[in-house]
Amino acid sequence: MRRCRPRRRLRVTAVLAVTACLGVGVAPFPMTAQAESTWETRAETITQQALYQSDLDPVSELPDLRDYPAGPVRKQVFLKLLVPLVEAENARIAAQREWLETVQSRGGARSAKERERLTVLCQEYDLPCRDRRVSNALLERVNTVPISMVIIQAIEESGWGTSRFARQGNNLFGLRCFQDGCGLAQAGSGRQYSAFDTVRDAVRTYLHNLNTHKAYTQLRKRRAQLVAQGRLVTAEALIGELEGYATRHDYQDVLLTLLRTNNDLIRRHRSDKTV
Description:
The chain is an all-alpha fold. It has a single domain (16-101, 143-269), classed as Lysozyme, CATH 1.10.530.10. It is 50% helix and 3% strand. It contains 11 helices and 3 strands, in the order αααααααβββαααα. The protein has helices at residues 16-20, 39-50, 72-105, 112-124, 136-141, 147-158, 164-169, 199-212, 217-228, 235-239, 251-269; strands spanning 176-177, 183-185, 192-194. The chain has a 3-stranded antiparallel sheet with strand order 1-3-2. β2 and β3 form a beta hairpin.
């Protein structure tokens, strides 16, 4: 993993208008076969002009949340920082999925540009592309994660952003690395934890980990099952599939307790105010 670049001062802001129009589970820009040639332009416009506008500049330094009193004030600062970043990353994934579903519904990629994009997505999600078709295995991986689950794990793994790995490496999710000098060492254990240039890099890596690592195969299958049944994919439904994330035996119970305690507060910071 990358080491952090020189730090700069953080502006804690939220972008609600952008993420409201890119709600999870809602196609951000519905396509028809006739409009397929404009998809790349639309996607580029959204990702570059909306998701990466100034209010979502990469955060290269967390504020020292220990400076804020524990409780409501610290929670507000933490959620104002993190929720918009998670919404933006989920929106990026939702756009990828919407495109893949459209290509699948037409029987596969047609143009050279579509085939190239399909290959890129297969590589991003660590799956081989054998032909022009969009596999169900790929769609099982390219999907969003409930925002409340992402936030709850960040809370538990970073102590509301106060852990050393969060403060020094933007690592809110306890993500480890396994090469000498790859990150931040944990004293006395020999373990190393990834250091990221930005908080958004950490969010993206966390989501990619859940969407690709073999340890979370059952989580992805459960999510796909809920989608196929037309049911809402909730944090409660997926937390039970996180057995491989931590070694502590009560990890899932801890997350569910945090969810019950903080879900209303998380919802108030979301652009769509949904569960």
